Amino acid sequence: MKKFLLLFLMSMLAGASLMAAGLTRDPNSYEGKNGINIRSLWLKDRFHYGTFELGNLEWCNQRARTAVMQDGIVYVARSEAKQIIPQPGDTIMASVIYRFDAWTGEELAPLDVTLNGEPYGVFLGVNTIGKDNFGHVWVAPYTSESAASINLYQLDVQTGELTLRGSLNKGDVIARTDYVDLVGDITLEEAECNVMTPGANVPTVYGWHNDQGGDIDTWDGFFSGDPYMDFTEFYPETQTQWGLAPCSRFVLSEDEESRYSGECFYIDGFTTVPVLYANDGTIIDGFGSLSQEELDADSLLLPKVGCNGIAEFTLAGRNFIAYPIGQYDAPNSCQINVCELGEGMAFSGMQRYWTLPADGMGQTSDSGLRIHPLTADYTTEGGKDAVILLDYKCFNGIGVYLIGEGVTPDDPIQTTVPGDVNGDGEVTGSDVTALYNHILFGQDTEVFNGDQNGDGEVTGSDVTAVYNIILGI
To answer: How many Å apart are CA 51 and CA 55, to the nearest integer?
Structure first.
């Protein structure tokens, strides 16, 4: 037996590891809160879908940083995804938009991104993908400390062709920008449009405005005519700038006439947590409004700095907010909170409904990209209004949840992947190592589920079971 196990272990570690079939949805069940239920539609992440398989997918890459959901389709933008040689001696690393059915997770045909009919190969050229309030999907590039402007493009979701909708000048203060947000209509046909991006490692925020029916080639500065403003208020209060890779998120006005004016917005930076600002740079609300009693009562309410993203939605006359509670650093595991805001949409009095996924999404470093995009779209379920929520974290996973009064929650499912002895979500030679050490030496610190054949004991037959799973027998 000992010889068989040792020879088998050596052969497995010498060869390539193979991933067993992983889960396709969040295996956790979530209790309804105040009449609102939640159900996982699908989930592909490192903890459940499998590190090996996920890490070999084209859309799970450090150049695939943001995602958005529109009309039942999830779009994941990846820069430098595809090598194209249009002529000898000329190589373009072109962008690709990967697509999924938002309801099933089925991967759809990707879009090759083009500009003026040619492959779009700008460095980090689709660093941000987003949507406006009239169904148009758009992309924007990363810009460096030497770039004086930011190009904003509308994406044709049928062909992948880009149309320039604005070349936005940074003005006299030039800093790096990573992630962009906008509100209104990027085409300027049905509404005004406002665009924003915080600068990196500075207190500067850039913003631009254009009127409905305005000249697409002429954008005004958002801040009283200026394209930038230095902010002086932060949370935590000790901070004096945003750090790397900050993001912003506009809030729709309750007044129909000024719905897309961008009069207030969130900013979330590497060294800060989400703060709601007025367009004069003053703080309206944020996590600093929570009392110590509220924080003591729920230690998961206050997010850690370092991961950036936020979304708002309304259900059953109540206002909700979704935000990441941390990066991939243990114990946060790329999780998000879904909370009901307090009276009058205040942070004070907010109530956490769920932390998703309850057991985490992944803990693999994405090299510090910070962003954790969230998108909430409205639909119906069970004859009542519902929200479909996209949760995407670069290099760690993607999933969609359905939330509403008419939503039927899931039953929990078995979280043990067949063959996964050590509980890391995949089946490799390390599982054989764990069994080998357990059977021969009594070491069980790495054994999560040693009894793989269900006979009530851990023996060499369980090693055979793992072997068969890896080989697909």
So the answer is: 6
